[in-house]
Amino acid sequence: MIETAEKEKLALFGGAKSIQKPLNRYNSIGSEELIAAKKVIESGILSDYIGAWHEKFYGGPCVQEFEQACKDYFGVKHAITVNSATSGLMTAVGAIGIEPGDEVIVSPWTMCASATAILNWNAIPVFADIDPETFCLDPKSVEANITPYTKAIMAIDIFGQSANIDALIQIAKKYNLKIISDTAQAPGAKYKNQYAGTLTDIGSYSLNYHKHIHTGEGGILVTNDDDLAERMQLIRNHAEAVVGPKGVTNLSNMIGYNFRLGEIECAMGIEQLKKLDSFIEMKQTVAKKLNAGLKDLPGLQIPKVQENCTHVYYFYGMTLDTKTLGVSREKIYAALKAEGVDGLFAGYQNIHLLPIYQKKIAYGSFGFPWNSEICKREVNYQKGICPVAENLHDMTFLGLAICLYAFSEQDINATIAAFRKVWDNLSDLGV
Ligand SMILES: *Cc1c(COP(=O)(O)O)cnc(C)c1O
Question: Which residue from 7, 161, 212, 244 could staple onto 311, CB 3.0 to 4.6 Å apart?
Fold first, then answer.
């Protein structure tokens, strides 16, 4: 009998941990942002907007300069800064002229704000399933969910790559729908030589602390449509007070908010945008090294990138073939965590299962808008409507939050070593 080298014992069973120290946070802020913010603070003018039809309706000098820089970077006609991507998505849904009770198709595999932006205009979110490889909306499921009441699609460019925009645009043309891109996690990702977020009616990027580039809080809306741009500028800044003096005749959804981004944030945003390409390269390098170290592990699917597209790796999304492995994701996840793998998460989001949809309680406590006459049919939010997203969430998905941490070469190698150690010991994990 051939002696086999003794395997290293899993940390889960009392062996030594592969990784001793937690990851450092990713920090995109440097001296350039400090200098830019200081200059604004010294000026004393931290925001230079007026919520009326006035030369200051469009904001101060840093807002103007940042919006111009966004137009140049993304190659779009209009860029509109807002104080979060959440308010940006609300702005976008209002701008496309949604009517109360209209249906908007959205993915369940996203941050909750993608769908609540729809509800905010008393429209009805309808959840379509996702593609098991890209985790973005599955165009077939989108088409299957279209009803006479569907007005738009909210396409999420999740984890750092674009949704299948060609297929979604075809559907939108066929059924006369608008498309909004929630590109919060994929700024700078390319879809066939154009930036994700720029190919649909409106694109939306986030500048919150957790994203590739940030200003603390903030968001950017982009469009090539003059009318949509004007309507978004109005919703951002007290539309109802401005439409009269500005001579706006289309008054639908001209309820305005204060969604304005300040001068300090825009000054920092100008510096952050200059660095975006280098940050993307950093994340892509981490992913490339992880791919090289993990791709041969049986039953583990590393991220797939659509042809002629780039991925900017907000998250590194993997799936497990638990049937082949004979081990549940929970066991594998527990073993990896015990080894000290940081930034790891099991499952992601199934937002159709949130209480707001399960109980259909949003505005007040009586079920508005679903039980009112504006909602023209019974909309199903039960478990089972998005089997791919549900199975990924419950059973097979594992992610590494590579945008939230600064993965050094050493961190990457240690993460790979921990995965390989767990894979060497799969038979010890049981089912
Ligand atoms: C972060 C995020 C948002 C919301 O962004 P905020 O700027 O925090 O409002 C929306 N959608 C997705 C997919 C996100 O990741």
Answer: 161
Do residues 309 and 162 make contact, with C-beta atoms less than 8 angstroms apart?
yes
If you measure from the C-alpha of residue 180 to the centroid of ligand 1, how many angstroms do you get, rounded to a whole number?
A: 14
* Cβ–Cβ under 8 Å, residues 407 and 325: no
Query: For residue 356, how many C-alpha atoms fall within 13 Å in the half-sphere facing its CB?
Result: 16
Q: From the CA of 368, how far away is ligand 1's center (Å)?
A: 25
CA of 21 relative to ligand 1 center, distance in Å: 29
pLDDT (mean) for 12-22: 95
pLDDT per residue as tens digits for the range 138-179: 999 999 999 999 999 999 999 999 999 999 999 999 999 999
Please name each of the domains of the chain with its CATH number: 31-272 (3.40.640.10)
Which pLDDT score is estimated for 1?
Answer: 43
48: tokens are 């230079």
Give me the pLDDT at residue 300, please. 98
Q: Which residues line ligand 1 (CB under 6 A)?
A: 84-86, 110-111, 113-114, 156, 182, 184-185, 206, 208, 219
**Total residues belonging to the chain:** 431
Amino acid at 1: M
Which of 82, 84, 86, 116 gets mutated to test ligand 1 (max ligand atoms within 8 A of its CB)?
A: 86
The pLDDT of residue 8: 87
pLDDT surpassing 80 at residue 133: yes
